[in-house]
Specification:
Blueprint: E1 4-6, E2 9-11, E3 16-17, H1 28-40, E4 45-47, H2 56-64, E5 74-79, H3 89-100, E6 107-110, H4 118-130, E7 137-140, H5 144-150, E8 159-165, H6 177-183, E9 188-191, H7 196-205, H8 208-216, H9 221-229, E10 235-237, H10 244-252, H11 260-269
Helix pairs in contact: 1-2, 1-10
C-alpha cells in the first residue's frame, strides 16, 4: 500500500473529507460515528474548512477527535480568501483552532485565490507557523498561473500541497498543473475523488471498463475510483462520507493496486486531457 508524504510526514493515502458535514443536527451522531470509525480504521488526515457550514464541520470534527491522541491525527483546515490578510488570518485561525479543540493544525490552506496579495497571505501563514499554531501551510484550487505567481514570492518554497478537484471523470489537471506540481515536488490533495457521485456517477457507473476492473478486484466502482486517484503515490485523497460503512469501504480501497493494463483500460473510457482545461471547482 502506498503512503503519501506531506511536510516530511508519511500519511495513509485516504483521508476523511467533511464538506457538508455538521450542518444537520439529525445526522450528527451518524456523522460522529463515521469520523471515529475512519480514525479507528487507519485514516490519519481529516480535512475541513471554516467555510464548511460556517464552522459547523470544524465543531463536528472537534467533537469526533476528543477521544483520540492528537499526535496520531493530521488536521487540515482552510481560510477564506478574504480572511487571508495579516490582520484577519490569525483571527480566523484562532477561531478554527477553538472549534476543533486543538492548539495547532498540521496543515492550513488558503481555500482559493482572492484579493489579498499572495505575498501577504504567505507572510501571515509563516508567522502562524513560527507561533506554533500551524505546522505547515498550503493552497487550494490553485491553477498553473496561480502557482507560478506564488512561486515568485518569498518563502513560497514552504508551500506543502495544492488541493484541487481530481477524479477519473475530471482529469484536466494532468495536462499542465500536475506536471508543474511534480516538478516542484508539491503533493496533491484530491477532493471530490468520487466525482460527486450524483454529478458524474451515472456516466462513471455506465463504463463497462470501470465495471470490469471493479469486478476483477471484487470491489465497488467507488473503491476503484479511490484506488485510481492515489495510484501515483503523491496524492492524499479525501472522500467525504457521513456513514461508517461507507468510510470503511473507502479506506479499504488503499489496498487495491491497479495494474498498468487496468489503468490503460480506464483511460479508454476516461482519456487523459490533450489540451489545457479550465480548473474544475465545485
Amino acid at each position: 500500500m502506498s503512503t503519501v508524504k506531506i511536510n516530511q510526514q508519511k500519511l495513509f493515502p485516504i483521508g476523511l473529507g467533511t464538506w457538508h458535514m455538521g450542518e444537520d443536527a439529525a445526522k450528527k451522531e451518524q456523522e460522529l460515528e463515521a469520523l471515529r470509525t475512519g480514525i479507528e480504521q487507519g485514516a490519519v488526515a481529516i480535512d475541513t474548512a471554516e467555510m464548511y457550514g460556517n464552522g459547523a464541520s470544524e465543531l463536528l470534527v472537534g467533537e469526533a477527535i476528543q477521544s483520540f491522541k492528537r499526535e496520531d491525527l493530521f488536521l487540515i483546515s482552510k481560510v477564506y480568501p478574504w480572511n487571508a490578510s495579516k490582520k484577519q488570518l490569525p483571527i480566523s485561525l484562532d477561531n478554527s483552532l477553538k472549534r476543533l479543540g486543538t492548539d495547532h493544525l498540521d496543515l492550513y490552506l488558503l481555500h482559493w485565490t482572492g484579493n489579498v496579495p499572495i505575498a501577504e497571505t504567505i507572510e501571515a501563514l509563516e508567522k502562524a507557523k513560527k507561533a506554533g499554531k500551524i505546522k505547515a501551510w498550503g493552497v487550494s484550487n490553485f491553477d498553473v498561473k496561480d502557482l507560478q505567481e506564488m512561486y515568485q514570492q518569498k518563502d513560497s518554497q514552504n508551500c506543502q500541497v495544492n488541493q484541487v478537484l481530481y477524479n477519473l471523470g475530471d482529469r484536466g489537471i494532468e495536462f499542465d498543473l500536475l506536471p508543474l506540481m511534480q516538478e516542484k515536488q508539491l503533493p496533491l490533495i484530491a477532493y471530490a475523488p468520487l466525482a460527486e457521485a450524483d454529478r458524474l456517477g451515472g456516466q462513471l457507473s455506465a463504463s463497462s471498463n470501470l465495471q470490469e476492473v471493479a469486478h476483477n478486484h471484487q470491489a465497488t466502482i467507488f473503491q476503484i475510483l479511490l484506488a485510481w486517484s492515489i495510484r501515483q503515490g503523491q496524492t492524499l485523497t479525501i472522500p467525504q462520507s457521513g456513514k461508517a460503512e461507507h468510510v470503511k469501504e473507502n479506506l479499504q480501497a488503499a489496498e487495491i493496486e491497479l495494474t498498468k493494463e487496468e489503468i490503460a483500460q480506464l483511460d479508454k473510457d476516461f482519456p487523459k486531457p490533450t489540451t489545457k482545461q479550465t480548473l474544475s471547482i465545485i
